[in-house]
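REQUEST
  id: r-88c1
  op: predict_structure
  target: Shikimate dehydrogenase (NADP(+))
  payload:
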Amino acid sequence: MDHYTVIGHPVEHSRSPAMHRRFAELAGQHIKYDRTLAPLDAFVATLEAHIAAGLKGANVTVPFKEAAFAWAHRLTDRARQAGAVNTLALQPDGSWLGDNTDGVGLVTDLKRLGAPLGGARILVIGAGGATRGILGPLLAEGPSALVLCNRTLAKAQTLAELFGIEAQAMDALAGQHFDLILNASAASLTGELPAVPAGLFAGASLAYDLVYKPGGTAFERWALDNGCKASSDGLGMLVAQGAESFRLWRGVLPNWQQVLAEMKEGL
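RESPONSE
  id: r-88c1
  status: 200
  body:
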């Protein structure tokens, strides 16, 4: 069977093996998918050892996405925009294509939820690597405004300039209205809340946290308590971006919404 893996450090927490095996079952594909723990100083050596043993593709997780970006022979436009690679795919000519499926995974899940995109006012909280991977696909949907905020304004401004969008200080957002509010900061990993005004959520259609946790995140609950109409965590983004990786490797898009439903039941 064709071999695929997810490479990271740490990687034992990754849900990708179970997810991709289920994708394969539903799509009638026969693959092997496992986890690979790479030493922090040996990503390339670990990857190339697997390639020598017949690897056909890989998902790349923290902290190796930038290393994968530098290693790939060719890059998709969205990988170049993101400055990071989370999917590597062996090509017929023997070269390796680097892609970033995070942004398309997010947009796909937002559409599943009926979130406003075209013509909407969108706020993205956080200016780290996760944000860089989603800004291009969000802009492609034609929002009327895409605003970036971050605890450190200078970092938000640097990233905003790359994409031609607006950056604002968190405390300058008071009194503004957004249709869609995305939390791409690391705050939810520790149960903290971003330092944006709570009044931002009043009347917003959706608050979306890129982090996923059983029972939802503190950000989701905070948004709903302050007048947001709906909220979601990032499990759908995880599954949708994984399905896009699977499509790149196998040429077929699996039934990711069924897998998402099954994963929710198992949380």
